[in-house]
Inverse folding.
């Protein structure tokens, strides 16, 4: 790959999933991976195979499904982690193992309880072991942003000599500032004798809101890979947002000496919406590139300027990132072929005729309630359909809510639980509260509602409501989603979806940054 090409390394499926409540099923990971492949990202970090059998299976499934992007697996500098990564990637058309060990004085002393010499030895050993599975090995000195420069140079030189072709410098806790982080990359590349034998990468967290700024500063100082996520999803305050990195480099070619020409930017918006729908993490309206207001102009002066000449207030074309591109309106008279074709264009593929028929039936039901159905409606409908088909231990059969001025709202609910029909009614401070109280009367999950979020899918009072909930149960956090033109029904669907995820939850994963001493 040309040194003028910026490698885009997407870690939505790995670091993005570490956001509390953002866990994804194997099928959901495959859907996102295929959307990333369509976006033409260079590398997809699919997960952390040693964390759990579920994570291993998901990485293996992604590796077997993706042909045009390199699939990467994360591994601590431990035999079992590296071996699990190598085994999970066995069917990948192009594979990479990403191994790491902490290098800051704080982490080495308090977490690893290892000496600097032991850390260097373990780093070299890990890279060499990973090379038994693939020639494409990446090494990260964890918490590099707070590591001593002399020791960083030493461990990186040793890792490159051992066979690491990519050296990733992570700002693990989001501590750095752009000018200093850029200088760090520059100094490492100048001081390490064999630096020219590896691609330098960065992985920045957003604790101070500087993940994108730090990443771009690193690129200006010679980094040629950026690790990022769709919508900036990630642990704590998140990671550098892929869409912002890509469009900053693409828009400011007067500043950057590298390009991102391999990325199909028209797929950015659909990827953003897919990740948002699956994880239940809504995109704020004023989010750069993919927010609903990103290309909106309310000021009369701005509107006048844009009408006269777009570049007066817009530095990018909305169409370049997927806004209004190939927008098709479907309705009650649209046939199954048009429905299926549009979904394929949006990145959805059905595994069977039964899946297509189920989704099409839901589409027809929606079309009876809503005159015009847009891409956003289709994405919400498919997410709702797939969510409803996941381990439906609990099913919503019927719901009636009464709510009037001066009276306590009541919900009359019928659920199927393990194929047994249960009827109940309950009151609440509002109709949604009454519905949730009624559900809990039946299932008695003991879950605590941590987040309840509603957003309209499209404009207008006939818009679908997309509801996201986050439930906590015995330390486990699960999200659920539901969509319907009736907000109360969408709310019930979301809560039930989360409960079904609890029933079918995978073995808990070990957090790769909260682990035992290596």
């Amino acid at each position: 790959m040309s040194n003028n090409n910026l490698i885009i390394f997407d870690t939505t499926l790995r670091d993005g999933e570490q956001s509390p409540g953002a866990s994804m099923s194997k099928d959901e990971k495959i859907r996102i991976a295929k959307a990333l492949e369509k976006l033409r990202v260079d590398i997809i970090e699919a997960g952390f195979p040693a964390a759990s059998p579920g994570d291993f299976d998901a990485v293996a499934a992604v590796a077997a499904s993706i042909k045009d992007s390199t699939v990467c697996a994360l591994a601590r500098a431990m035999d079992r982690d590296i071996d699990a990564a190598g085994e999970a990637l066995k069917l990948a058309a192009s594979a990479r193992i990403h191994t790491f060990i902490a290098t800051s004085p704080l982490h080495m002393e308090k977490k690893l309880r290892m000496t600097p010499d032991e850390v260097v030895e373990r780093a070299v050993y890990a890279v060499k072991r990973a090379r038994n599975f693939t020639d494409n090995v990446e090494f990260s000195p964890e918490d590099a942003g707070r590591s001593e420069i002399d020791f960083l140079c030493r461990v990186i030189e040793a890792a490159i000599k051992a066979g690491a072709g990519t050296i990733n410098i992570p700002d693990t806790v989001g501590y750095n500032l752009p000018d200093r982080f850029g200088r760090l990359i520059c100094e490492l590349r100048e001081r390490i004798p064999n630096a020219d034998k590896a691609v330098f990468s960065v992985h920045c967290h957003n604790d101070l809101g500087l993940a994108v700024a730090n990443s771009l500063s690193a690129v200006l100082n010679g980094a040629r890979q950026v690790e990022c996520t769709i919508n900036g999803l990630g642990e704590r305050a998140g990671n550098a947002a892929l869409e912002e990195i890509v469009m900053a480099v693409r828009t400011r070619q007067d500043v950057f000496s590298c390009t991102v020409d391999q990325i199909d930017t028209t797929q950015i918006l659909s990827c953003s919406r897919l990740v948002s729908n699956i994880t239940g993490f809504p995109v704020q309206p004023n989010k750069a590139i993919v927010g609903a207001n990103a290309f909106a102009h309310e000021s009369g002066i701005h509107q006048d300027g844009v009408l006269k000449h777009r570049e007066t207030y817009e530095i990018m074309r909305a169409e370049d990132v997927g806004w209004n591109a190939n927008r098709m309106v479907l309705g009650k008279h649209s046939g199954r072929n048009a429905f299926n074709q549009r979904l394929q264009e949006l990145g959805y593929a059905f595994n069977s005729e039964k899946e297509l028929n189920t989704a099409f039936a839901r589409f027809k039901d929606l079309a009876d309630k809503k005159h015009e159905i847009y891409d956003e409606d289709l994405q919400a409908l498919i997410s709702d359909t797939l969510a409803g088909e996941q381990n439906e231990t609990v099913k919503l059969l019927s719901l009636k809510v009464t709510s009037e001025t001066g009276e306590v709202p009541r919900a009359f609910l019928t659920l199927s639980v393990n194929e047994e029909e249960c009827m109940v009614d309950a009151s609440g401070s509002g109709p949604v509260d009454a519905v949730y109280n009624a559900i809990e009367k039946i299932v008695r999950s003991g879950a605590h509602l941590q987040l309840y979020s509603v957003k309209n899918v499209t404009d207008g009072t006939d818009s679908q409501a997309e509801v996201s909930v986050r439930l906590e149960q015995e330390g486990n956090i699960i999200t659920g989603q539901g969509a319907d033109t009736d907000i109360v029904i969408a709310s019930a669907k979301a809560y039930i979806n989360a409960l079904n995820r609890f029933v079918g939850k995978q073995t808990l994963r070990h957090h790769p940054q909260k682990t035992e001493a290596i």
About this structure: The chain has four domains: 7-279, 295-325, 336-387, 390-503. DSSP finds 16 helices and 14 strands in the chain.
